[in-house]
Write a structure and sequence with these properties.
homodimer; alpha/beta; 434 Repressor (Amino-terminal Domain); Rossmann fold; 14 strands; 42% helix; 17% strand
Chain lengths: 336, 336
């Protein structure tokens, strides 16, 4: 293969000009650039990218395993992580597990374990210095029994058995805030449309809500609670059930369920906010486009990401692989 | 350093058991696993991850450069790309440029060029076999003057000067569909709330809309058109201007602008859909949560991703680096 010098000679330019062309610098005429490009293709010259990459390789790289990039929580968590790492001059690369590609992913432990294994293998082969696992929702992850050469931090979930450092949301404190807000509006007959009852978020929100009512000496009526799938349609169906029981407020476990309650109200010529006080959870973007905008709890997604990155940074700096710190961050009430 | 055999002997188990523990297999008791883990930490034994990774490295890896992961278009484009590559047994890794971290990113060419350079260097150092650049919105990209050892495909944008294969949306055909739909509802005095006028999408939608009116012999009134930022607030302000002119329909260049028109109507006790026919563009998730749901054009994001991946696949299979095929895919009318 010809050398850089030979290539430059054939083009009738200096080696610096060839380097500049290869590296995309703009101070070269288009015709010179095309002449160099053509000569590179004719001679099969291979620019020395590895030298350029040595500089890059001296940086630490963190691999992010994203369970599902399309989950509405993922981009903001990733942004929180990357904002922290950019300030610390770490590189970040992402691996998307795409769990939604399997309709029954939550019950398919084999699929999830094999997804994590592939992600870990791929990221280790790319020489990452640490791995942050960004979950689709909070639950106990069972997939990190490997003994890995790099530290792992769990973002927006927990681990089972062998503990890993994690950051998630504080469902208890957040639900207490929301419940007390609803009570402060004078409501005492309040329905609760919960998420699926095998879900940690739903369980914690249900229990905390129940506790707050008891603390305020308000009768907790099991019949005003339903556990359903987290969708708009399920919210509408659930509304049909609980609204028959004369409630004045509905605490929904997410904003989609609340949107379903709105759908039911519109269909029955009732006005959300006026005929029924409806609250959501998540501060998903749709919550401010519903009419009227819905009162909800804002997930601290950026902060979950930032804190996860900080935990990783601490592990790398202390050279400890198995720190087991865990953090739960409260949500913020968005009253609309 | 001790060998696998020595480690296994010290733990009083077989080498197979140690391997299984390292690789996260589940058929080992928790106490054995902890004993092995403890011994690994005491002896400083380093599991041979490279051997495991050889298998992975034989796969082709495509690097995706994402301008902004938080852009609502990005996750679906990425999903389209990855769905294709999963079927073809390619690995995919993502690099997020985070352009929103710079408030004036669209005008800061240096920032963008340096972001692309970093992304390219990082992905090349990770030995990717090809790069797909996923843009935040369609425009002419100027950042790929490098001479790269791998092929590049542009997803949701075009390139300037030196042409690269690309896939974007067909704004013309899509606008024609929408304009004819509005006309079919009997409207002849139609306002247009456009995006920023230096934006390719906005220019194409404006021109195509104007052309359709002319073809239908309907007077095109420049005074009924405003070019504004793409936000909900801008849509509301624009509505205040154009609605004074007695229009019966408004064609908005995106769904946020349409949501702003809704805000204006609500504030003035008018009903969207009844007192004014409002259409959006994008089929952003909020468009179905507005009340009533808005008629819009669905961006073919999955298909843009799929087609971009297919172009890359073809380039890799043909060993051609500089194919210059381009595709523009029409949007789908979602009538609500």
């Amino acid at each position: 293969m010809i050398t850089l010098k030979e290539l430059a000679d054939r083009c009738g330019v200096s080696t610096a000009t060839v380097s500049n062309a290869i590296n995309g610098k703009s101070n070269i005429s288009e015709s010179t650039k095309m002449r160099i490009l053509q000569m590179i293709e004719e001679t099969g010259y291979k620019p020395n990218f590895m030298a350029r990459n040595l500089r890059v390789n001296s940086k630490r790289t963190i691999g992010l395993i994203i369970e599902e990039l399309s989950a509405f929580t993922s981009p903001a968590i990733i942004e929180g992580i990357m904002r922290y790492f950019e300030a610390q001059k770490y590189e970040t690369i992402l691996y998307n597990m795409r769990v939604y590609s399997n309709l029954n992913w939550m019950d398919d432990e084999k699929f999830l374990q094999s997804g994590v294994n592939n992600a870990v293998d791929e990221l280790l082969s790319k020489q990452v210095n640490g791995i942050i696992h960004v979950a689709e929702h909070s639950r106990k992850l069972k997939y990190y029994n490997h003994i890995l050469p790099v530290p792992v931090v769990i973002s927006y979930a927990y681990t089972d058995e062998r503990k890993l450092p994690y950051v998630s949301i504080d469902d208890e404190t957040s639900t207490v805030k929301m419940a007390e807000y609803i009570l402060s509006k004078g409501h005492t007959k309040i329905a609760m449309i919960c998420g699926l009852n095998d879900n940690l978020h739903a369980q914690k929100r249900y229990n905390s809500f129940k506790r707050v009512l008891k603390e305020h000496n308000i009768h907790f009526d099991e019949d005003l609670c339903v556990f359903v799938n987290w969708t708009r349609d399920a919210g509408k169906e659930a509304a049909a059930k609980v609204l028959k029981k004369g409630v004045t407020a509905v605490f929904c476990h997410n904003d989609f369920l609340a949107a379903g309650v709105y759908d039911y109200l519109y269909e029955h010529n009732m006005q959300p906010g006026k005929d029924l006080f409806v609250t959501g959870f998540d501060d998903h973007i749709v919550s401010s486009y519903l009419h009227p905008g819905i009162t909800t709890m804002k997930l601290p997604l950026l902060e979950i990401g930032r804190k996860s990155a900080e935990l990783m940074d601490n592990l790398l700096k202390s050279d400890a692989k198995y720190g087991i710190e865990g953090f739960e961050i409260p949500c913020e009430l968005i009253a609309r």
